[in-house]
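Hi X.,

You mentioned you wanted examples for the new student's onboarding notes, showing what a folding record looks like when two proteins sit in one file. Here is a clean example. The first protein comes first, with its sequence line followed by its structure tokens.
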Amino acid sequence: MATQAHETVLLHPAVDALLTDPAGFYVDGTFGRGGHSRLILERMSETGRLLGIDKDPRAIEVGMALMADDARFSIRQGSFDELDVMLADTGAAGEVDGILLDLGVSSPQLDEAERGFSFVQDGPLDMRMNPQAGLSAAEWLATAAEQDIADVIYRYGEDRFSRRIARAIVKEREVAPISRTLQLAEIVKQANPAWERHKHPATRAFQAIRIHINKELVSLENVLEKALSALRPGGRLVVISFHSLEDRLVKQFIQKQSKGDDFPRDLPVTVSALSPKLIKIGKAVKPSEQEIRQNPRARSAVMRVAEKPA
């Protein structure tokens, strides 16, 4: 059962940045429990439309109930990197007014032990956003090569003890299958010789395995590219990241698309002639101290906003 109510991070700043036309067509690519979507609907006119997307079957249940209550809203199950497919029959491809992505794992997913994301509650070692698709974390750890496990923990968790942790996982799985979250957390804890202050020693490894299992960075790269063609001129892209690798990817994508065509540096060319595909809107936004006090999980959030040139 959930132990903490889901609090939508950067709720008002995200919707403020996203909603430029109350009668427009918007996409909430990470519906979750509908926090952002409900505020978008509240601010939209009667002719506005909102499409929600999520992998999680529980999120889809919440979305179906919202769709029954509000004809302006529709929900589809899948990954946001299938954005082009999701939009194909909406009549809005290339005409989307705003796309919102709230990345990472949600509070309900963390708090429901049976989902397998938590290293402080015992549950089956799953970690899939959609438990009906792909390999679970337990299945992957049972067969992956030691070097592959080390690479994932180092690349996605930036954990300098990745090799020690991978070695310990392989050693333990030879004794008994690693099938529970607290079982894995203890293995990582014992293999980690230097604990970070105020951080559980399994944090980085769990985060890395989750990112790998759900192909989160690959999906993010794909959806950013697809957002360019999905947005109308003047349409907004709003992305909330919780991980430095995600934020770096988003930041670099916006920077690259804002530069436009690659002309020689000494060639006198105007900005408009460079044909930038995006314009950065404002600086990165972080939660207020008050929001962090109310919801400590918001502390690592970073929001970036870009607009497709008109």
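Then the second protein repeats the pattern, sequence line and then tokens:
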Amino acid sequence: MGDTFTCLLALALLHVALGAAVGQTDGRIRYDNYAVYKVKYESLGQRNLLRQLAEDRENFRLWHEAKDELHVMVSPSGLAEFQAEVLQANATAKIFIPNVQELIDIETTENARATSEDFGWKKYNSLAEIEAWLDDILARYPVITEGFVLGQSYENRTIRGLKISYKSGNPGVFIESNIHAREWITSATATWLIHQFLTSEDPLVRTLAESHDWYIVPVLNVDGFVYTHEKDRMWRKTRQPSAISSCIGVDPNRNYDSHWMENDGASSNPCAENYGGPRAFSEPEIQAMSDFVGSIKTKLNVMLAFHSYSQLLLSPYGHTDEEFPDNYDDLMEVAKAYGDAVEAFPYGTVYRYGSAAGILYTASGATNDWAYNEQGIEISYTIEFRDTGRYGFVLPPVHIVPNAEETLIGLIALLDKCKSLGYLNLKY
């Protein structure tokens, strides 16, 4: 690690001297020479020491956390402190993204190249483009589609969803996307699935589409999503100001009233990326989600929360790794069906599966636990999409369709296994 750090530290000091730490172009925050490191550790003490870095959001951003490693984005000016903390923790660090801005620039270029085309999946679409497309879908398929509104965001944007139903008496599947603003692959995949459910002529897809009622929210964190497109590509949280800090936003996936803030499953620091908020349901987006799902929970058999990245299927519980759901074995069997189907697909993408706290870390107040614990939805997963770190949150648009295709084949297997285990019986 020493040679890598020496080189990058010199580069960082040069850029600081030139005034090129965090820059802005056209009002957008830039991440020139921000690097992402994979930090390996062995003990909880090491983890806690390293985790403190994430409290300094100006220099460090936590990208991923697991039982034995962290992925941390480090600013040029924070590199010396990062090196010192890694050495103090007796951990090891390896760089895997040397310049985050280069990935953002590539993504921006590819998006610009595709802007002249109609709505599609060669680029990442903005909220306005997604909403216009939903309007077109509702106009073209008035019999089998229905729009619904969860509520309003802090900045007074409408949080929209689409229901697809070919016939009455179907089990319900709810898909939540883009609860974390920077995870663009999730809304891209959700909209691609909508398109397939309405247009595909493949017999397997037709059966999947027509045998379930689909409730799909392409963008839950609408304020944060717009902010990532217009200001800060790496933004994760909501946009509601804090009453006790100058830092903005709450991690909406720590804000549900299900074991909220238990077992260090979220941070109480408003500047942290996993800040749980001043209280459960403090975020209007999460309150709206709760109210809507609560109103239709007897129609729902499956809850899927789309996230990136890491290629994981995570079941409850997230708030503890010392207890497991009563149907944990079934949840693992269903998850295995998804993972096996995706791996057998031509791309050969490998997904791991287990409980959220078991595979990753304690995370309280998340969608999958809330749906399982509070709404009685016995099949509830967080699905972490591509990749495992090469691009992280800035997954190039060329990955959109492959990721969506393997998600579709995974859903076919997942729901087929749910059916065979008796989880798709109507609850109303």
